[in-house]
Amino acid sequence: MVRLSITVLTSPLLPTPAPAVRLRSRPLIRLRLRALAAGAASSLSPSARSLRLLEWGKVCDAVASFAGTAHGRDATKKQLWEVEDVSYEQSQRLLQETEVAVWLLDNAGGAMDFSGLDTIAIESAIHCVSGGAVIKGLEAVAVASLMLFVESLQVNIKAARKLDEGSHSRLTTLTETILEVVINKSLVKSIQDIVDDDGSVKDTASPELRRHRERVQLLESRLYQLMDKLMRNANNEDSLSEVCIVNGRCCIRTTGDKSSTFDGLLLSSGSDAGSMIEPIAAVPLNDELQESRALVAKAELDVLSKLTDKILLELDSIQSLLQETIKLDKVTARAKYSIAYDGTFPDLYLPNFENETVTSATGGSAKGTSSAQPPKKAWKLYMPNAYHPLLLQQHQENLDRAKRDVASATAEIRRRRIYGQDIAEDQLASDLSSMKLRVSQLEKDQPVPVDFMIAEETTVLVITGPNTGGKTISLKTVGLASLMAKIDFLIADYS
């Protein structure tokens, strides 16, 4: 493999060195901390130090933020940090996946939104059911949401595939497994019939559950009527009383110097909180209420236990759905990041050149077929108008923030005009003008791109220029672009 050596030199036109200045010694603790930091950095491998120097972690975080699920974000970061172990063949496959994901976002965009899935709850449900425990209501809802999402995704992918007959072979690389999965609609219906959207078990889940819940409601109503009657009969102006619940038992809290006028059990007392009294007349009702609540809990457990048995039969399918969904979310995150920053598909080439012909990642000869490969000219590196991804991201975030400020100020001025609150309207109008000016300035002040075009026979490249002239940023742009191309998401390149 041909290696390229890059040397960075500063401009010879440097200012005259300043006279020496004697500095006070820093505290010993700072020296120790700096030594520890230097020791930790030196313990890293050369490749790890390179990734750290390039701030690859920030790029990984930025890409992962486009994933819709927690597991998708973790999987995206894990894959990006393993960029060193990616082979040329794997890069080819990853590039095809990203290309398919971009196509799906263009043709079935709404179906590729994974943010409504709770993969943590789904994983918890899988562990719970496989371990012999009873599934929780919210976990069952998450499982049903996954199955419904995959069913909707299958419909949208098939519909998008009909729009482009030639897309069938491309989609196979990414969607073949998930399209072959058969969704158990009866299981989804069982979950929906038993569990509500908030995870609570429905009254209609079983006759026993409905009967016990109705009994609980009746007892609670009787208790509140009894408490209201006792408090009205007391009618003590020197004390205040209210109904409260202590350990699931209905009681009366009284505050004041005089004792209560009804018999009861003192559950607790204090100078600030008052006295918690359970009236003697309420004890039987409270006991019966506790028993009815226990019967409700048992009926809910029985219903969820039967539902767990049904989910257990489909556990392998649910695990497969979760894995494929996380994979799709991971690939879609790369595609969404690429689209958000107007990226360009990279052309990857094997390092061995023969007869001015190289093999590209898309298959076949790249000679005369790519914009990155001029006729009869083999480039070692061809990157016109390449942007540093972190600078581009920072600029886009600042621009989005400025636009949101303009929208908020405009809405506030409109609101004040509607309600006649024009006291500070002049100041707001002035602020709005400055906000709009900032948006206009940010739209003009785009990050400066860099052009890299290095011929095949070049083995040494010397970069020279003044301090803060962009040498380091240029090198980091090349380094990050090579990593991004290797892991295969689109490069910020406006060529």
Automatic annotation (TrEMBL):
One of its GO terms (molecular function) is mismatched DNA binding. This is DNA mismatch repair proteins mutS family domain-containing protein. Gene3D superfamilies: P-loop containing nucleotide triphosphate hydrolases. GO terms for biological process: mismatch repair. It comes from the Eukaryota. InterPro entries: DNA_mismatch_repair_MutS_sf (IPR036187), MutS (IPR045076), P-loop_NTPase (IPR027417).
